[in-house]
Amino acid sequence: MCSLEKRGNVWVLTLAGDDPQHRLNPTLIDSLASALSRLASHATPGSVLLTTAQGKFFSNGFDLAWARAASSPSAAFGRLQSLVESFRPIVAALISLPMPTIAAVNGHASAAGFMLAFSHDYVLMRGDRGVLYMPEVDLGLPLPDYFTAVMRSKMKSGAVLRDLLLGGAKMTGAEAVKMGIVDSAHDSEESTVEAAIRLGEQLAGRKWVGEVYAEIRKSLYPVACNALGLTQKAIVSKI
């Protein structure tokens, strides 16, 4: 599950619930979809989204234990595919959300959890604990097409992509800053969230029109938008 609260113009979306690893299962994905839909409908000039989580995990990716609990290997594969496809609209919603978005990565973010964080405009990470990790090559799992499209759109270094996706590299906050994957690393969970709140307040102060912001964002990532089924919308100029 996740919670959504408003602090001034900054909406704080927090992954919570009984699973300390915040693995993406149908329940959590549905909760994220509901929260993002609410945000899209309540956006006003100056709105900002900040996403974080409780505990030492941001998200450990898809709930593979839930998938493997199916009655047969084919049913387990079907469950995994359903997670992949139901998460696609979450990434699409973040890429098209009419407001700036910030991820405050409080701990480990792996696989789809990494993708959840990386789908935000800004990524701040704690430096004292936690890694970013794409373990699909180690798990023997194919990478969803939209994962690749988003990462190729946002990461310009082929060497970084190789190390993450083909090498299964685990990157700390400091390493991720050096590689240009995250914007900053901080000393603790609290300082990470505090820095994200400060950034959110700065962005909120610009009072940008969300619809325009979203269309400019989409124009930056045409390959990712194509994989996500997002199209550009014409906006009438108010000059």
From TrEMBL:
Name of the protein this chain belongs to: Delta(3)-Delta(2)-enoyl-CoA isomerase
PANTHER family on file: ENOYL-COA HYDRATASE-RELATED (PTHR11941), ENOYL-COA HYDRATASE_ISOMERASE FAMILY PROTEIN (PTHR11941:SF75)
GO molecular function: delta(3)-delta(2)-enoyl-CoA isomerase activity
The protein's annotated pathway: Lipid metabolism; fatty acid beta-oxidation
Family per similarity comment: Belongs to the enoyl-CoA hydratase/isomerase family.
EC code: 5.3.3.8
Coiled-coil residue spans: none
Native source species: Vigna radiata var. radiata (Mung bean)
Any one cellular-component term (Gene Ontology): peroxisome
Catalysed reactions, semicolon-separated: a (3E)-enoyl-CoA = a 4-saturated (2E)-enoyl-CoA; a (3Z)-enoyl-CoA = a 4-saturated (2E)-enoyl-CoA
Keyword field contains Zinc: no
GO BP annotations listed: fatty acid beta-oxidation
Record's keyword annotation contains Repressor: no
UniProt keyword list: Isomerase, Lipid metabolism
